# Entry
Amino acid sequence: EVQLVESGGGLVQAGGSLRLSCAASGFTFDDYAIGWFRQAPGKEREGVSCISSSDGSTYYADSVKGRFTISRDNAKNTVYLQMNSLKPEDTAVYYCAADSADICGLPWDYEYWGQGTQVTVSS
# Structure
């Protein structure tokens, strides 16, 4: 069974850090781009970051560029999102997703999704 399982969320103060993990199973992880998305209450789901499988290219939303870093460890079938200098506006449920087309595109491009992990940043 295909699974993507996020972990590492929690409650932190503004300026703090968290590292999210996305552990994948049941598909050829090495062939998929893995993206991170987030959805805050009352807002649309937005792309946060993505890392391709073919060349390791990375994408970051402007709102997180310079603060977040995405990486992948194919040997562990895991993608990480290191989040530093967190702001209250980063508060959201964070989801990882997998895209067989390896294009780091829009949400509809992603075939598999995790259940999400809550990140709450207090002021």
Observations:
- Residues 10 and 88 are 13 Å apart (CA to CA).
- The radius of gyration is 13 Å.
- The mean pLDDT is 96.
- The first strand starts at residue 3 and ends at 7.
